[in-house]
Amino acid sequence: MRAQSSPWYATLSSYWFASSFKWFLVLLALLPTRVAELSPEPERAARLGFLFVLSAIIAIVGPPLFGYWSDRVGRRMPFIAFGSVLTALSLVWMAFAPSYSQLVIAYLLLQLSDDAVTGPYSSLVPDLVARRRRGVASGWLGMLQVAGSVIAGAMVLLPIGLEGQFMLVALVNLLAAFLIIAFIREVPGLKPRSDGLWTSLIAPWRSADFRWVWFTRFLVMLGQYVVLAYLQYYLADVVGRFGLFGSVYTNEPAQAVSLLGLLIAIGTVLAAVPAGNLSDHRGRKPVIYAAGGGLAVLMLLFLIPSFEWLLLLSLLFGVLFGAYLSVDWALISDVLPDPQGHATDMGIWQTSSILPQVLAGSFGAWLGTLGEQSGGSGYTLIFLAAAVCFALGAVLVRQVWGAK
């Protein structure tokens, strides 16, 4: 397989497809079902919430630590191999765990095994892809990441049972890891890092460019998660009618938001690679300015309570968000300060999308309460806050001096 070709980029991105496929099914279907099977009904929600909190903490700490370990030994592929095998074993254990306590251990092991891959794997773009082609590589990553979620949503409908779905997820992760190891292979000439753990974790924060790229991505992801977390409630409380071409599409907000989510995913997949290619030729910043500014404007248009209108806006949201995803990975790859610390630094950068997930729920709830107390609409404040996040996430990229 020729390096820097489309099949090579697709192979390089395959584990992000597998990871997205895995977490979509596990978090939205498989884990809640298993918790319900192994818990008394009054305790189900609390037990599921407990697992989400623990996994969020591990997801913040794990990738930088495993990334540092990968930099220390100067290897990537052993971590991908070990993590993917442990991921498969964890999924099998989750499928057949006879008690909630065993399910907790299996799920935490799944999170750790995923982190063992994430830090080292996420460094492969800055390690292997030429600067002039990182936009295309980033576009493939964004496209396959979203495609994994879309296909996972369809897999829920397959008549293979709960255990069969766990096995399918395990198989997809093993296959993706095999493709990476067999066709991408180890990074040539990677020298082991000699710095201590604390020094390595602090080092990227000394770079102003790294800090700005981390913060701007944090803002964009926070805006996205705040909107998506409350979109179904907005449809139920404000939009109310879910018409489509003059007829009623559904009376269920959950089905309506699923259609909007599908349109967002389609837009993202269509835009990711072309926008990444554009950033390679025209620069990263113009694409981010256009994507972030466009997302900010869309948030204001989302306040028009028409379902047909929201269908169009959702597709446009996907196009703009896909354009952003196609550039942010390339942008951080361009400004990483230390070639021997890519895995550590990329592991730290990953927290810029994990922390917003943790904050989105409480942030949106606080805005909603504030809106009710002031006599206004909580949803208006939520969309306005998201617009501010998107706008700042775009404008502040101008502070990044190490990229165009």
Q: With helices defined by DSSP (H or I, 4 residues minimum), what is the helix count?
A: 15
Q: What's the average pLDDT?
A: 87
Poorly predicted runs are none
The Cα radius of gyration reads 21 Å
What is the molecular shape?
globular
Beta content comes to: under 5%
What class, by secondary structure content?
Answer: mainly alpha
N- to C-terminal distance: 31 Å
Compressed to H and E, one letter per element, the order equals: HHHHHHHHHHEEHHHHH
Count of beta strands = 2
Helix content: over 70%
Biggest beta sheet attributes: 2 strands, antiparallel
Main-sheet strand order equals 1-2
Question: How would you characterize the overall build of this protein?
Answer:
The protein is mainly α. 79% of the residues lie in helices and 2% in strands. It is built from 15 helices and two strands. It has a two-stranded antiparallel ribbon with strand order 1-2. Helix 11 packs antiparallel against helix 12 (284-301). It is globular, with a radius of gyration of 21 Å. The model has no long low-confidence stretch (mean pLDDT 87).
